[in-house]
Structure formats: C-alpha cells, structure tokens
Write a structure and sequence with these properties.
Elements: H1 4-24, H2 29-37, H3 45-52, H4 56-66, H5 80-84, H6 89-106, H7 111-134, H8 142-151, H9 154-162, H10 164-171, H11 179-188, H12 192-202, H13 207-214, H14 225-241, H15 248-259, H16 263-284, H17 294-314, H18 324-329
Length: about 325
Amino acid sequence: MQTMDQDHERTCSLDELLNRLDKLHSSPTVALRVMEITRDPEFQMESVAECLELDPALSASILRLVNSSYYGLVDEVTNLRHALTYLGRRSLRLTVLSFGLVKALVSGAPAQFHQNYWRRSLTMAAAARECAKMIKGTRVDPDTAFATGLIADLGMLVLAQLETDTYVEIAEEPDHTIDLVQRERAAFGFDHMAVSRGLMMRWQLPEDLVEAVGNHHVYLPVSTPLNHIALVANLITEVIWTPVCPYMQPLQQVMFRQLDLDVDDLITLVLATKDSVDEGTDIFGVRLQGEIDLEAVELQARELFKVASEDIANDQDSVDLPGIEGFIKVPLG
C-alpha cells in the first residue's frame, strides 16, 4: 500500500516539475489576464479587446473560430471587436483558454512530438464537443466540452519539454489509454493527467475543467456528465485512429450506461467528430497526417454492439472487459 510519505514525495516531484516549467515559460499573460477580466460578470468587452490586441496570434485564432462553420455566419468577420460580440462570456473564456494556453505550451515541444499531440487533442476536443451536443437531459455546454478535450493532454506537452529524451520515447507508445499511463507512472511516479491538473490549478482555471481533465482516463460511475464526456472523448480518439481498437467495446458501454447513447449514436458521433476535426485543423492552422477510416470504425462498432449489449444486460454494475477494469479503477497521480 502506498504510504503518506510516498504521496508527499510524488507531490513534491510534481511541484518541482511545474516549477521548472515556470522558469522555462512565462505564464500566458494575455490569456490569463482575459480570464481574470471576465471573472467579473459586469466586465467591459472593450477591456477584453484591448487586452487581446496585445497578442496578435490569439486574436487571429479567435477570428478564425468565429468565421468557422461552428458559428455559421453568412458574412466574414474581420474586426476583433465585432468577432467578440458573437462570443458569450463563457464561450469567450473557453476560447481564450483553448487557444491561449495550448499555443503557449505547444510551441516549446519537440517537433517530432507535435503531430501525435495535435491529432489526439483536436480529436478529443471535437469528440467532446459533438458528444455534448448529443446527450439528453442534463446539458453540457459544447464549448466547455471542447476546451476540456483540447487541454486534457497539456501534461504531455510539459513532460515532452522538460523530460524530452525520456518522454518522447514513452509518448510513442501507440496505446495512449492504459500503456502510456503505466509507463509514465513507472518513469516519473505520476502521469500526464496529474501534470495537467496541477498546471490548471496553478493557473486557477475553472474547477469543472480541472476535474474532467484530471479524470479523463478514469471511469467514475457516479460523476458529472462532463467527466463522462471527457472519458468518451479519450476512448473515441483511440478508436478513430487505431485499426481494430480494443477500446471500442468499453466506449460503447460508457456511452450506453452514462450518456444513454446507442450504437447508432456512436456512428453519428464518429461522423460528426471527423468533420469537426477537419474544421479544427483549419482553425488552429495545423495539418494532420493519416485519414480516419469511417467504414472500418462503423463495421467494428456494429460487430461488437451485440456483445456489449449482452454484457451490460448481464451485469449493470461493472465493466468486465480485458484490461479496462484496471484502467478505470487506478487512482491518478
């Protein structure tokens, strides 16, 4: 059993890692300043615009987002102040969070690490956003879900920058759900979710995002819808980019049990995610290698659906699939 001294040692090691990051990078000043301004419900949009104009790259990202199909505007918006009028307070905060904080870290990561990171993050963000739009009952804001998926793996960027030689090799592990986490813990004593959570807490980011990011590899039967969406986004990213993925069946089970979504909903979600990923690459100005094989994903989903349905009918209280139970029960950090 892990002792309190071991817990303290691991916490200190994580703090030391984040302190090293502070020395390597200045905090994303403009993004955090906008977050501070918009904490006041009576904030002035003019103050936000003046702040954003100090960061041309962030301003350009906001313009690309507002002009994307996410907003479906007829006429192109070319003025930052005009663009901000289309973003409510919550969407504005999350847009700045997504673009400002991710961009601040990704620029320092090794070049060979970029492709896999962007592929995972954009897919998780897209899947989370589309899933939030689909679920019934308790509503989760799609922009919140998008931000959660996009920043979930910030810890990977931190580790890639500060422990480059060790971590780039670890991150090449094709299974980013069980094996990656186990290798991280073996090498450092903590995983990238703990790093992401620690970084977000230092930056005083919204509590619901911190919780979902910190648990996006964990199945919590009694939890918030955003936590379940984050897990679904993580699993669907594995499924979309990995042929004959072992996580198809767990994905279906989580969707069915926690979000009341069936196999047809899964296929719809995959289609919508692909389109959203394509849109995201334009918004963020990145190019991804490889193609999503929609036909293969649908075939595997339907072949396993009957088995998954039988498992759920036989045992509503557990996930009895090889490997997944250990993954969802292991505490983080």
